[in-house]
Amino acid sequence: MSDKNVIKSGSNLERVLSSGHFAVTCECGPPKGADVEHLQKKIDLIRGCIDAANVTDNQTAVVRMSSIAASAVLLQNGLEPIMQMVTRDRNRIAAQSDVFGAYALGIRNMLCLTGDHQTFGNHPMAKNVFDLDSIQLLDVVRVIRDEGKVNSGDPVQGSARMFLGAAANPFADPFEFRVIRLAKKIRAGADFVQTQCIYDMDRFRKFMSMACDMGLDKQCFILAGLTPLKSAGMAAYMNRSVSGITIPDEIIKRIKGVPKGNQAEEGINLLLEQIQQVREIPGIAGVHIMAIEWEERVKEITERAGLLPRPQL
Amino acid sequence: MIVADPKPFGQVKGYLENFEKILIVGCGTCVTVCLSGGEAEVQILASGLRIAFGREGRSKTILEGCVQRQCDEEFILPILNRVENEQIDAVVSLACGVGVNFFADRLGKTPIFPGVNTTFYGAGMEPGLWAEMCAGCGDCMTAHTGGICPVARCSKHLLNGPCGGSEKGKCEVDPANIDCVWQLIYDRLQKLGRVDELQNVLPAKDWRTASDGGVRRTVREHLYRLK
Asked: What is the pTM of this model?
Protein backbone atom coordinates (compact mmCIF):
# COMPACT_ATOMS: atom_id res chain seq x y z
CA MET A 1 0.00 0.00 0.00
CA SER A 2 1.23 3.49 -0.73
CA ASP A 3 0.92 6.49 1.55
CA LYS A 4 -1.61 9.03 0.25
CA ASN A 5 0.43 11.85 1.76
CA VAL A 6 3.66 11.11 -0.08
CA ILE A 7 3.93 12.59 -3.57
CA LYS A 8 4.30 9.79 -6.12
CA SER A 9 4.81 11.32 -9.54
CA GLY A 10 3.91 14.97 -9.04
CA SER A 11 1.45 14.83 -11.94
CA ASN A 12 -1.18 17.53 -12.27
CA LEU A 13 -3.88 15.04 -11.30
CA GLU A 14 -1.97 14.04 -8.19
CA ARG A 15 -1.39 17.69 -7.21
CA VAL A 16 -5.06 18.52 -7.70
CA LEU A 17 -6.18 15.56 -5.61
CA SER A 18 -3.63 15.92 -2.86
CA SER A 19 -4.32 19.62 -2.45
CA GLY A 20 -7.93 18.73 -1.71
CA HIS A 21 -9.55 19.98 -4.92
CA PHE A 22 -12.46 18.03 -6.39
CA ALA A 23 -10.79 16.44 -9.43
CA VAL A 24 -12.27 16.07 -12.89
CA THR A 25 -11.10 13.54 -15.45
CA CYS A 26 -12.62 12.35 -18.68
CA GLU A 27 -11.91 9.85 -21.40
CA CYS A 28 -10.05 10.42 -24.66
CA GLY A 29 -10.19 7.31 -26.81
CA PRO A 30 -7.45 6.99 -29.45
CA PRO A 31 -8.46 6.62 -33.10
CA LYS A 32 -8.81 3.27 -34.88
CA GLY A 33 -5.71 4.10 -36.86
CA ALA A 34 -2.91 6.62 -36.94
CA ASP A 35 -5.20 9.62 -37.45
CA VAL A 36 -3.45 12.14 -35.20
CA GLU A 37 -5.63 15.00 -36.36
CA HIS A 38 -8.73 13.24 -35.10
CA LEU A 39 -7.08 12.85 -31.72
CA GLN A 40 -5.97 16.49 -31.71
CA LYS A 41 -9.55 17.61 -32.35
CA LYS A 42 -10.72 15.65 -29.30
CA ILE A 43 -7.90 17.12 -27.23
CA ASP A 44 -8.88 20.66 -28.24
CA LEU A 45 -12.44 19.98 -27.10
CA ILE A 46 -11.48 18.95 -23.57
CA ARG A 47 -8.28 20.87 -22.80
CA GLY A 48 -8.76 23.18 -19.83
CA CYS A 49 -11.98 21.47 -18.72
CA ILE A 50 -10.35 18.60 -16.86
CA ASP A 51 -7.27 17.80 -14.81
CA ALA A 52 -6.24 14.78 -16.85
CA ALA A 53 -7.74 12.53 -19.51
CA ASN A 54 -7.80 8.73 -19.59
CA VAL A 55 -6.26 7.38 -22.75
CA THR A 56 -7.84 4.00 -23.28
CA ASP A 57 -5.83 0.92 -24.22
CA ASN A 58 -7.63 -0.84 -27.07
CA GLN A 59 -10.89 -0.54 -25.17
CA THR A 60 -13.48 -3.27 -25.67
CA ALA A 61 -10.60 -5.12 -27.32
CA VAL A 62 -10.92 -3.11 -30.54
CA VAL A 63 -7.58 -2.26 -32.14
CA ARG A 64 -6.68 1.42 -31.85
CA MET A 65 -3.61 3.62 -31.66
CA SER A 66 -1.55 2.50 -28.65
CA SER A 67 -2.33 4.27 -25.41
CA ILE A 68 1.34 5.18 -24.94
CA ALA A 69 1.60 6.89 -28.31
CA ALA A 70 -1.75 8.62 -27.91
CA SER A 71 -0.76 9.74 -24.40
CA ALA A 72 2.40 11.26 -25.86
CA VAL A 73 0.24 13.14 -28.39
CA LEU A 74 -1.85 14.48 -25.50
CA LEU A 75 1.30 15.71 -23.75
CA GLN A 76 2.52 17.41 -26.94
CA ASN A 77 -0.83 19.16 -27.09
CA GLY A 78 -0.83 20.40 -23.52
CA LEU A 79 -3.17 17.87 -21.95
CA GLU A 80 -2.17 15.54 -19.15
CA PRO A 81 -2.84 11.87 -19.92
CA ILE A 82 -3.79 8.99 -17.65
CA MET A 83 -2.35 6.16 -19.67
CA GLN A 84 -4.47 3.05 -19.38
CA MET A 85 -2.72 -0.29 -19.60
CA VAL A 86 -4.40 -3.68 -19.86
CA THR A 87 -2.81 -7.04 -19.11
CA ARG A 88 -4.81 -8.76 -21.84
CA ASP A 89 -2.27 -7.93 -24.54
CA ARG A 90 1.10 -7.86 -22.80
CA ASN A 91 3.02 -10.03 -20.39
CA ARG A 92 5.07 -8.62 -17.50
CA ILE A 93 8.10 -8.14 -19.74
CA ALA A 94 6.20 -5.94 -22.19
CA ALA A 95 4.23 -4.20 -19.44
CA GLN A 96 7.30 -3.12 -17.50
CA SER A 97 9.11 -2.11 -20.66
CA ASP A 98 6.08 -0.01 -21.65
CA VAL A 99 6.04 1.65 -18.22
CA PHE A 100 9.66 2.72 -18.70
CA GLY A 101 8.92 3.94 -22.22
CA ALA A 102 5.86 5.85 -21.10
CA TYR A 103 7.73 7.47 -18.25
CA ALA A 104 10.55 8.46 -20.61
CA LEU A 105 7.97 10.20 -22.79
CA GLY A 106 6.72 12.22 -19.81
CA ILE A 107 3.65 10.17 -18.86
CA ARG A 108 3.06 10.34 -15.10
CA ASN A 109 -0.40 8.80 -14.51
CA MET A 110 -1.25 5.22 -15.27
CA LEU A 111 -4.44 3.22 -14.85
CA CYS A 112 -3.90 -0.52 -14.41
CA LEU A 113 -6.59 -2.78 -15.85
CA THR A 114 -7.05 -6.39 -16.84
CA GLY A 115 -8.96 -5.32 -19.96
CA ASP A 116 -12.09 -6.46 -21.72
CA HIS A 117 -11.97 -10.01 -22.98
CA GLN A 118 -10.99 -10.15 -26.66
CA THR A 119 -14.22 -11.93 -27.59
CA PHE A 120 -15.93 -8.52 -27.34
CA GLY A 121 -13.60 -6.83 -29.80
CA ASN A 122 -12.75 -6.95 -33.47
CA HIS A 123 -10.20 -9.75 -33.07
CA PRO A 124 -12.06 -12.45 -31.15
CA MET A 125 -9.69 -15.00 -32.70
CA ALA A 126 -6.66 -13.49 -30.94
CA LYS A 127 -4.67 -15.25 -28.22
CA ASN A 128 -4.83 -13.37 -24.93
CA VAL A 129 -2.01 -12.99 -22.43
CA PHE A 130 -3.24 -12.31 -18.87
CA ASP A 131 0.19 -13.11 -17.45
CA LEU A 132 -0.80 -10.64 -14.70
CA ASP A 133 -4.17 -9.46 -13.48
CA SER A 134 -4.85 -5.78 -12.80
CA ILE A 135 -3.97 -6.13 -9.11
CA GLN A 136 -0.67 -7.78 -9.90
CA LEU A 137 0.10 -5.08 -12.49
CA LEU A 138 -0.48 -2.42 -9.81
CA ASP A 139 1.85 -4.32 -7.51
CA VAL A 140 4.53 -4.65 -10.18
CA VAL A 141 4.47 -0.94 -11.13
CA ARG A 142 4.36 0.17 -7.49
CA VAL A 143 7.46 -1.92 -6.75
CA ILE A 144 9.21 -0.33 -9.75
CA ARG A 145 8.37 3.09 -8.30
CA ASP A 146 8.88 2.53 -4.59
CA GLU A 147 11.58 -0.11 -4.50
CA GLY A 148 13.31 0.48 -7.82
CA LYS A 149 13.02 -3.17 -8.81
CA VAL A 150 11.39 -4.99 -11.69
CA ASN A 151 9.26 -8.05 -10.98
CA SER A 152 12.26 -10.38 -11.13
CA GLY A 153 14.02 -8.33 -8.47
CA ASP A 154 16.57 -6.76 -10.82
CA PRO A 155 17.27 -3.06 -10.20
CA VAL A 156 15.67 -0.37 -12.35
CA GLN A 157 18.04 2.09 -14.03
CA GLY A 158 16.89 5.57 -13.10
CA SER A 159 13.37 5.92 -11.77
CA ALA A 160 9.87 5.47 -13.16
CA ARG A 161 7.42 7.05 -10.76
CA MET A 162 3.81 6.69 -11.82
CA PHE A 163 0.72 7.98 -10.03
CA LEU A 164 -1.18 4.71 -10.07
CA GLY A 165 -4.85 4.25 -10.75
CA ALA A 166 -7.28 1.38 -10.78
CA ALA A 167 -10.87 0.80 -11.79
CA ALA A 168 -13.62 -0.34 -9.46
CA ASN A 169 -17.00 -1.67 -10.42
CA PRO A 170 -19.46 -1.41 -7.52
CA PHE A 171 -22.21 -2.82 -9.70
CA ALA A 172 -20.79 -6.21 -10.61
CA ASP A 173 -21.19 -9.29 -8.44
CA PRO A 174 -20.65 -10.60 -5.85
CA PHE A 175 -21.50 -7.22 -4.31
CA GLU A 176 -19.80 -7.93 -0.97
CA PHE A 177 -16.59 -8.77 -2.81
CA ARG A 178 -16.43 -5.44 -4.65
CA VAL A 179 -15.18 -3.53 -1.63
CA ILE A 180 -12.74 -6.31 -0.74
CA ARG A 181 -11.42 -6.08 -4.29
CA LEU A 182 -11.07 -2.31 -4.02
CA ALA A 183 -9.12 -2.80 -0.79
CA LYS A 184 -6.85 -5.28 -2.56
CA LYS A 185 -6.22 -2.81 -5.37
CA ILE A 186 -5.27 -0.15 -2.84
CA ARG A 187 -3.01 -2.56 -1.00
CA ALA A 188 -1.39 -3.53 -4.30
CA GLY A 189 -0.65 0.11 -5.12
CA ALA A 190 -3.66 2.11 -6.33
CA ASP A 191 -3.28 5.80 -5.44
CA PHE A 192 -6.57 6.69 -7.12
CA VAL A 193 -9.60 4.78 -8.30
CA GLN A 194 -12.14 5.54 -11.01
CA THR A 195 -15.42 3.70 -10.78
CA GLN A 196 -17.55 2.13 -13.48
CA CYS A 197 -20.38 4.43 -14.60
CA ILE A 198 -22.87 4.97 -11.84
CA TYR A 199 -26.59 4.95 -12.48
CA ASP A 200 -27.80 3.09 -9.41
CA MET A 201 -26.99 5.80 -6.88
CA ASP A 202 -28.39 3.87 -3.90
CA ARG A 203 -26.13 0.92 -4.54
CA PHE A 204 -23.18 3.28 -5.04
CA ARG A 205 -23.88 5.00 -1.71
CA LYS A 206 -23.93 1.62 -0.03
CA PHE A 207 -20.65 0.69 -1.70
CA MET A 208 -19.06 3.95 -0.59
CA SER A 209 -20.24 3.60 2.98
CA MET A 210 -18.69 0.10 3.09
CA ALA A 211 -15.48 1.53 1.58
CA CYS A 212 -15.39 4.39 4.10
CA ASP A 213 -16.06 1.98 6.97
CA MET A 214 -12.88 0.18 5.93
CA GLY A 215 -11.06 3.53 5.73
CA LEU A 216 -10.38 3.11 2.01
CA ASP A 217 -11.20 6.75 1.20
CA LYS A 218 -8.34 7.77 3.46
CA GLN A 219 -5.89 5.51 1.64
CA CYS A 220 -6.76 6.42 -1.92
CA PHE A 221 -8.62 9.04 -3.98
CA ILE A 222 -11.94 7.73 -5.24
CA LEU A 223 -13.36 9.33 -8.40
CA ALA A 224 -16.98 8.59 -9.26
CA GLY A 225 -17.46 7.44 -12.86
CA LEU A 226 -20.38 8.96 -14.78
CA THR A 227 -21.51 8.56 -18.37
CA PRO A 228 -24.12 10.85 -19.90
CA LEU A 229 -26.90 9.02 -21.72
CA LYS A 230 -27.39 10.32 -25.25
CA SER A 231 -30.72 8.64 -25.85
CA ALA A 232 -33.25 6.16 -24.48
CA GLY A 233 -31.84 3.65 -26.98
CA MET A 234 -28.36 4.00 -25.50
CA ALA A 235 -29.75 3.56 -21.98
CA ALA A 236 -31.62 0.42 -22.96
CA TYR A 237 -28.59 -0.95 -24.81
CA MET A 238 -26.21 -0.35 -21.90
CA ASN A 239 -28.65 -1.83 -19.42
CA ARG A 240 -29.16 -4.91 -21.57
CA SER A 241 -25.77 -5.56 -23.11
CA VAL A 242 -23.00 -4.08 -20.97
CA SER A 243 -22.12 -6.50 -18.23
CA GLY A 244 -21.75 -4.95 -14.81
CA ILE A 245 -23.95 -1.95 -15.64
CA THR A 246 -27.52 -1.69 -14.50
CA ILE A 247 -29.61 1.37 -15.20
CA PRO A 248 -32.60 1.75 -12.90
CA ASP A 249 -36.00 1.77 -14.60
CA GLU A 250 -36.79 5.30 -13.46
CA ILE A 251 -33.77 6.63 -15.35
CA ILE A 252 -34.69 4.77 -18.54
CA LYS A 253 -38.28 6.02 -18.15
CA ARG A 254 -37.09 9.57 -17.59
CA ILE A 255 -35.03 9.65 -20.80
CA LYS A 256 -37.75 7.82 -22.73
CA GLY A 257 -40.30 10.28 -21.40
CA VAL A 258 -38.96 13.24 -23.39
CA PRO A 259 -39.19 13.63 -27.17
CA LYS A 260 -36.29 12.05 -29.12
CA GLY A 261 -34.83 15.43 -30.04
CA ASN A 262 -34.53 16.39 -26.38
CA GLN A 263 -33.25 13.10 -24.98
CA ALA A 264 -29.58 14.10 -25.21
CA GLU A 265 -30.37 17.29 -23.31
CA GLU A 266 -32.19 15.29 -20.67
CA GLY A 267 -29.15 12.99 -20.46
CA ILE A 268 -26.94 15.99 -19.72
CA ASN A 269 -29.41 17.30 -17.12
CA LEU A 270 -29.36 13.90 -15.44
CA LEU A 271 -25.55 13.86 -15.50
CA LEU A 272 -25.41 17.30 -13.86
CA GLU A 273 -27.69 16.06 -11.10
CA GLN A 274 -25.54 12.94 -10.69
CA ILE A 275 -22.41 15.09 -10.39
CA GLN A 276 -24.06 17.02 -7.54
CA GLN A 277 -25.20 13.79 -5.91
CA VAL A 278 -21.76 12.17 -5.94
CA ARG A 279 -20.15 15.37 -4.63
CA GLU A 280 -22.24 14.93 -1.52
CA ILE A 281 -21.19 11.32 -0.93
CA PRO A 282 -18.50 11.08 1.76
CA GLY A 283 -15.17 9.84 0.42
CA ILE A 284 -15.58 11.02 -3.18
CA ALA A 285 -12.56 12.99 -4.37
CA GLY A 286 -13.62 13.76 -7.92
CA VAL A 287 -15.58 12.74 -10.98
CA HIS A 288 -14.55 10.76 -14.02
CA ILE A 289 -16.83 11.82 -16.87
CA MET A 290 -16.91 9.20 -19.59
CA ALA A 291 -18.65 11.11 -22.38
CA ILE A 292 -18.14 8.37 -24.93
CA GLU A 293 -17.58 9.93 -28.37
CA TRP A 294 -19.22 13.06 -26.99
CA GLU A 295 -16.17 15.15 -26.20
CA GLU A 296 -17.83 18.22 -27.69
CA ARG A 297 -20.14 18.40 -24.68
CA VAL A 298 -17.44 18.11 -21.98
CA LYS A 299 -16.84 21.87 -21.78
CA GLU A 300 -20.52 22.58 -21.37
CA ILE A 301 -20.94 19.79 -18.80
CA THR A 302 -18.03 20.91 -16.64
CA GLU A 303 -19.09 24.56 -16.94
CA ARG A 304 -22.72 23.93 -15.99
CA ALA A 305 -21.61 21.63 -13.15
CA GLY A 306 -19.56 24.49 -11.70
CA LEU A 307 -16.32 22.59 -12.15
CA LEU A 308 -14.55 25.35 -14.13
CA PRO A 309 -12.03 26.84 -14.05
CA ARG A 310 -9.77 23.93 -13.19
CA PRO A 311 -7.14 24.68 -10.54
CA GLN A 312 -3.74 25.76 -11.88
CA LEU A 313 -1.19 24.25 -9.53
CA MET B 1 -9.87 -36.61 -17.98
CA ILE B 2 -8.85 -35.23 -21.35
CA VAL B 3 -11.84 -34.11 -23.36
CA ALA B 4 -11.93 -34.09 -27.15
CA ASP B 5 -14.46 -33.44 -29.90
CA PRO B 6 -14.69 -35.34 -33.19
CA LYS B 7 -13.22 -33.41 -36.10
CA PRO B 8 -15.68 -32.47 -38.84
CA PHE B 9 -16.13 -35.51 -41.06
CA GLY B 10 -15.17 -33.64 -44.25
CA GLN B 11 -11.90 -32.54 -42.72
CA VAL B 12 -10.88 -36.10 -41.82
CA LYS B 13 -11.99 -37.39 -45.22
CA GLY B 14 -9.91 -34.64 -46.83
CA TYR B 15 -6.76 -35.87 -45.10
CA LEU B 16 -7.28 -39.33 -46.58
CA GLU B 17 -8.02 -38.59 -50.23
CA ASN B 18 -4.68 -39.91 -51.45
CA PHE B 19 -4.41 -43.07 -49.34
CA GLU B 20 -5.85 -46.49 -50.10
CA LYS B 21 -5.38 -48.59 -46.99
CA ILE B 22 -6.34 -46.68 -43.90
CA LEU B 23 -6.37 -47.76 -40.26
CA ILE B 24 -8.52 -45.89 -37.76
CA VAL B 25 -7.40 -46.37 -34.18
CA GLY B 26 -9.49 -45.51 -31.15
CA CYS B 27 -8.43 -45.12 -27.57
CA GLY B 28 -10.17 -46.85 -24.68
CA THR B 29 -9.68 -44.21 -22.03
CA CYS B 30 -10.69 -40.52 -21.91
CA VAL B 31 -12.03 -40.20 -25.45
CA THR B 32 -14.13 -43.33 -24.96
CA VAL B 33 -15.76 -41.79 -21.91
CA CYS B 34 -16.44 -38.48 -23.65
CA LEU B 35 -17.76 -40.29 -26.71
CA SER B 36 -15.37 -38.88 -29.27
CA GLY B 37 -12.74 -41.55 -29.95
CA GLY B 38 -13.62 -44.96 -28.54
CA GLU B 39 -14.46 -48.18 -30.31
CA ALA B 40 -17.95 -47.00 -31.25
CA GLU B 41 -16.66 -43.76 -32.77
CA VAL B 42 -14.05 -45.72 -34.75
CA GLN B 43 -16.86 -47.82 -36.25
CA ILE B 44 -18.97 -44.77 -37.04
CA LEU B 45 -16.10 -42.92 -38.71
CA ALA B 46 -15.00 -46.01 -40.65
CA SER B 47 -18.54 -46.65 -41.93
CA GLY B 48 -18.93 -43.02 -42.87
CA LEU B 49 -15.68 -43.04 -44.84
CA ARG B 50 -16.61 -46.28 -46.65
CA ILE B 51 -19.95 -44.82 -47.66
CA ALA B 52 -18.56 -41.42 -48.65
CA PHE B 53 -15.68 -42.78 -50.73
CA GLY B 54 -17.97 -45.50 -52.10
CA ARG B 55 -20.42 -42.87 -53.37
CA GLU B 56 -17.56 -41.32 -55.29
CA GLY B 57 -16.88 -44.71 -56.84
CA ARG B 58 -13.66 -45.14 -54.90
CA SER B 59 -13.13 -48.25 -52.91
CA LYS B 60 -10.60 -47.78 -50.15
CA THR B 61 -9.74 -50.28 -47.45
CA ILE B 62 -10.81 -48.80 -44.14
CA LEU B 63 -9.60 -50.88 -41.19
CA GLU B 64 -10.51 -50.47 -37.55
CA GLY B 65 -8.63 -50.84 -34.30
CA CYS B 66 -8.78 -49.68 -30.72
CA VAL B 67 -6.30 -49.90 -27.86
CA GLN B 68 -6.71 -49.37 -24.15
CA ARG B 69 -4.42 -46.32 -24.07
CA GLN B 70 -2.58 -44.63 -26.91
CA CYS B 71 -0.23 -42.94 -24.46
CA ASP B 72 1.70 -46.05 -23.40
CA GLU B 73 4.13 -47.97 -25.57
CA GLU B 74 2.97 -51.44 -24.52
CA PHE B 75 -0.55 -50.66 -25.70
CA ILE B 76 0.35 -49.27 -29.11
CA LEU B 77 2.94 -51.89 -30.06
CA PRO B 78 0.29 -54.20 -31.62
CA ILE B 79 -0.89 -51.29 -33.78
CA LEU B 80 2.66 -50.45 -34.87
CA ASN B 81 3.15 -54.12 -35.85
CA ARG B 82 -0.14 -54.15 -37.70
CA VAL B 83 0.78 -51.04 -39.69
CA GLU B 84 3.94 -52.76 -40.82
CA ASN B 85 2.54 -56.23 -41.40
CA GLU B 86 -0.61 -55.11 -43.21
CA GLN B 87 1.14 -52.36 -45.17
CA ILE B 88 -1.15 -49.58 -43.98
CA ASP B 89 -0.88 -46.33 -45.99
CA ALA B 90 -2.19 -43.96 -43.32
CA VAL B 91 -3.38 -44.05 -39.72
CA VAL B 92 -6.09 -41.91 -38.14
CA SER B 93 -5.90 -41.61 -34.37
CA LEU B 94 -9.07 -40.84 -32.46
CA ALA B 95 -7.11 -40.38 -29.24
CA CYS B 96 -6.27 -36.98 -27.80
CA GLY B 97 -3.24 -35.19 -29.21
CA VAL B 98 -1.02 -37.28 -26.97
CA GLY B 99 -1.92 -40.40 -28.91
CA VAL B 100 -1.34 -38.72 -32.27
CA ASN B 101 2.11 -37.51 -31.19
CA PHE B 102 3.05 -40.78 -29.57
CA PHE B 103 2.25 -42.63 -32.77
CA ALA B 104 3.94 -40.05 -34.98
CA ASP B 105 7.21 -40.47 -33.07
CA ARG B 106 7.08 -44.23 -33.71
CA LEU B 107 5.42 -44.70 -37.07
CA GLY B 108 8.36 -44.39 -39.44
CA LYS B 109 7.18 -43.48 -42.95
CA THR B 110 3.47 -44.05 -42.39
CA PRO B 111 1.57 -40.78 -41.94
CA ILE B 112 -0.84 -40.26 -39.04
CA PHE B 113 -3.78 -37.85 -38.93
CA PRO B 114 -5.86 -36.58 -36.02
CA GLY B 115 -9.52 -37.56 -35.95
CA VAL B 116 -10.47 -35.43 -32.96
CA ASN B 117 -9.78 -31.94 -31.64
CA THR B 118 -8.41 -32.17 -28.11
CA THR B 119 -10.01 -29.46 -26.03
CA PHE B 120 -9.42 -29.52 -22.28
CA TYR B 121 -8.99 -31.32 -18.96
CA GLY B 122 -12.50 -31.63 -17.68
CA ALA B 123 -15.17 -33.55 -15.90
CA GLY B 124 -18.51 -34.99 -16.93
CA MET B 125 -21.14 -32.65 -15.49
CA GLU B 126 -24.19 -34.59 -16.64
CA PRO B 127 -24.84 -37.04 -19.49
CA GLY B 128 -23.50 -35.42 -22.64
CA LEU B 129 -21.88 -32.42 -20.95
CA TRP B 130 -18.23 -31.94 -19.99
CA ALA B 131 -16.63 -28.80 -18.57
CA GLU B 132 -13.07 -27.53 -18.14
CA MET B 133 -11.66 -27.90 -14.62
CA CYS B 134 -7.87 -27.76 -14.81
CA ALA B 135 -5.32 -25.97 -16.97
CA GLY B 136 -2.31 -28.07 -16.05
CA CYS B 137 -0.38 -25.01 -14.87
CA GLY B 138 2.02 -27.16 -12.84
CA ASP B 139 1.63 -25.20 -9.60
CA CYS B 140 -1.81 -25.90 -8.19
CA MET B 141 -3.12 -22.92 -6.27
CA THR B 142 -6.59 -24.20 -5.42
CA ALA B 143 -5.64 -24.36 -1.73
CA HIS B 144 -6.23 -20.58 -1.77
CA THR B 145 -9.51 -20.74 -3.61
CA GLY B 146 -11.57 -23.40 -1.91
CA GLY B 147 -10.46 -26.09 -4.36
CA ILE B 148 -11.88 -24.23 -7.36
CA CYS B 149 -9.42 -23.20 -10.06
CA PRO B 150 -9.46 -19.65 -11.47
CA VAL B 151 -6.58 -20.41 -13.85
CA ALA B 152 -8.74 -22.90 -15.74
CA ARG B 153 -12.21 -21.58 -15.04
CA CYS B 154 -11.89 -17.76 -15.22
CA SER B 155 -11.95 -16.52 -18.82
CA LYS B 156 -9.16 -14.07 -17.91
CA HIS B 157 -7.34 -16.41 -15.48
CA LEU B 158 -7.72 -13.73 -12.78
CA LEU B 159 -6.11 -14.71 -9.50
CA ASN B 160 -7.37 -11.91 -7.26
CA GLY B 161 -11.11 -11.87 -7.63
CA PRO B 162 -13.83 -11.26 -10.21
CA CYS B 163 -13.59 -8.61 -12.91
CA GLY B 164 -16.36 -6.15 -13.62
CA GLY B 165 -17.98 -8.64 -15.97
CA SER B 166 -19.36 -10.91 -13.24
CA GLU B 167 -23.11 -10.59 -13.11
CA LYS B 168 -25.61 -12.80 -11.30
CA GLY B 169 -23.01 -15.54 -11.03
CA LYS B 170 -22.25 -15.61 -14.74
CA CYS B 171 -19.23 -14.68 -16.84
CA GLU B 172 -19.82 -11.93 -19.40
CA VAL B 173 -17.90 -13.87 -22.04
CA ASP B 174 -20.80 -16.33 -22.34
CA PRO B 175 -23.39 -15.80 -19.58
CA ALA B 176 -25.57 -18.65 -20.78
CA ASN B 177 -22.84 -21.25 -20.46
CA ILE B 178 -20.03 -20.00 -18.21
CA ASP B 179 -20.30 -19.53 -14.46
CA CYS B 180 -18.21 -16.76 -12.93
CA VAL B 181 -15.66 -18.89 -11.14
CA TRP B 182 -15.02 -16.10 -8.63
CA GLN B 183 -18.67 -16.21 -7.63
CA LEU B 184 -18.24 -19.97 -7.12
CA ILE B 185 -15.05 -19.40 -5.13
CA TYR B 186 -16.67 -16.67 -3.04
CA ASP B 187 -19.70 -18.85 -2.26
CA ARG B 188 -17.51 -21.83 -1.45
CA LEU B 189 -15.20 -19.88 0.87
CA GLN B 190 -18.21 -18.34 2.55
CA LYS B 191 -19.52 -21.86 3.25
CA LEU B 192 -16.11 -22.78 4.64
CA GLY B 193 -15.96 -19.61 6.74
CA ARG B 194 -12.82 -18.48 4.91
CA VAL B 195 -13.92 -15.39 2.95
CA ASP B 196 -11.33 -13.32 4.82
CA GLU B 197 -8.57 -15.09 2.91
CA LEU B 198 -9.73 -13.39 -0.27
CA GLN B 199 -8.29 -10.14 1.05
CA ASN B 200 -4.78 -11.46 0.47
CA VAL B 201 -3.18 -10.23 -2.73
CA LEU B 202 -1.83 -13.17 -4.70
CA PRO B 203 1.38 -11.94 -6.37
CA ALA B 204 2.22 -12.50 -10.03
CA LYS B 205 2.22 -16.23 -10.74
CA ASP B 206 5.37 -18.07 -11.75
CA TRP B 207 4.36 -19.63 -15.06
CA ARG B 208 7.57 -21.62 -15.50
CA THR B 209 5.79 -24.74 -14.29
CA ALA B 210 3.22 -24.29 -17.05
CA SER B 211 4.12 -24.79 -20.70
CA ASP B 212 5.65 -21.28 -20.63
CA GLY B 213 8.77 -22.82 -19.08
CA GLY B 214 9.36 -24.95 -22.17
CA VAL B 215 8.23 -28.46 -23.01
CA ARG B 216 7.67 -30.37 -19.80
CA ARG B 217 8.52 -33.85 -18.65
CA THR B 218 8.28 -35.61 -15.34
CA VAL B 219 10.83 -37.98 -13.87
CA ARG B 220 10.16 -40.43 -11.04
CA GLU B 221 13.73 -41.04 -9.90
CA HIS B 222 13.12 -44.43 -8.30
CA LEU B 223 11.69 -45.85 -11.53
CA TYR B 224 13.68 -43.90 -14.08
CA ARG B 225 17.05 -45.08 -12.73
CA LEU B 226 16.00 -48.69 -13.23
CA LYS B 227 16.12 -48.20 -17.00
From this structure: 0.95
User: What mean pLDDT, rounded, does chain A reach?
Assistant: 96
Angle between helices A201-213 and A263-279 in degrees, nearest 10: 20
Q: Which of B180, B199, B204 has its CB closest to that of A132?
A: B204
- Interchain proximity B162–A187, CB inside 8 Å: no
Q: In A80-133, which residue ranges form alpha helices assigned H by DSSP? A: 92-104
Q: DSSP 3-state assignment of B149? A: coil
| Mutation choice for A interface testing from B191, B201, B202, B206 by most A CBs within 10 A | B201
Query: Is pLDDT above 80 for B227?
Result: no
Q: Which amino acid is at B95?
A: A
At B225 the pLDDT is 78
Find the residue in B nearest to A182 (Cα): B199
A176 burial (CB, 10 Å; 0-12 / 13-18 / 19+) is exposed
Give the whole-angstrom CA distance, residue A70 versus residue A76. Answer: 10
B114-150: burial string, b at 16+ Cβ within 10 Å, e else: bbbebebbbeeeeeeebbebebebeeeeeebbbebbb
Which tens digit of pLDDT belongs to each residue from B164-204? Answer: 999 999 999 999 999 999 999 999 999 999 999 999 999 99
Q: Which of A160, A145, A33 is nearest to A102 (CA)?
A: A160
Per-residue model confidence (pLDDT) at position A242 = 83
Portion 132-151 of A in contact with B at CB < 8 A: 132-136, 139-140, 151
For residue A26, is it within any domain?
yes
Residue A2, pLDDT score = 65
Q: What's A135's domain CATH number?
A: 3.20.20.220
pLDDT digits (tens, 9 = 90+) for A58-82: 999 999 999 999 999 999 999 999 9
Top pLDDT among A244 and B49 is at B49
Domain membership flag for residue A273: no
Closest CA to B113 of B201, B184, B188, B25: B25
This complex has an ipTM of: 0.93
3-state helix, strand, coil in chain A (%, to 5): 45, 15, 40
Question: Residue A1: its pLDDT value, please?
Answer: 60
Range of the domain at A58: 12-227+282-291
| Contact by Cβ (8 Å): A285, A223 | yes
| Domains in chain B, CATH or no CATH each | 2-119 (3.40.50.2300), 136-213 (no CATH)
Number of domains in chain A: 1
What pLDDT score was predicted for residue A155?
A: 98
Chain B CB contacts of A196 below 8 Å: 164
